[in-house]
Amino acid sequence: MQFWDEEHVLATRMAKDARAPQPVQECCLRNNHLWDLASVYRPGVTWDAVLPTAVVFNGPVLYAKEEIVKGIGMK
Asked: CA 30 → CA 21, 27, 38, 72, distances in Å?
């Protein structure tokens, strides 16, 4: 699923709630906002007061395909 976050609301929240054991992104900051970032979460997790930790949190999306596929358990 892809989202356009024109006002950076989700990007700001994702950066704020990032914590171990979530991977630290190797890229994807533009004007101090996350952009073109893929985040993959475990099945069944819910987004509550604090976002769950992601198993994949990196990009740019175009170059993160292998990491995304591995993170969602596909071959």
From this structure: 24, 9, 15, 26
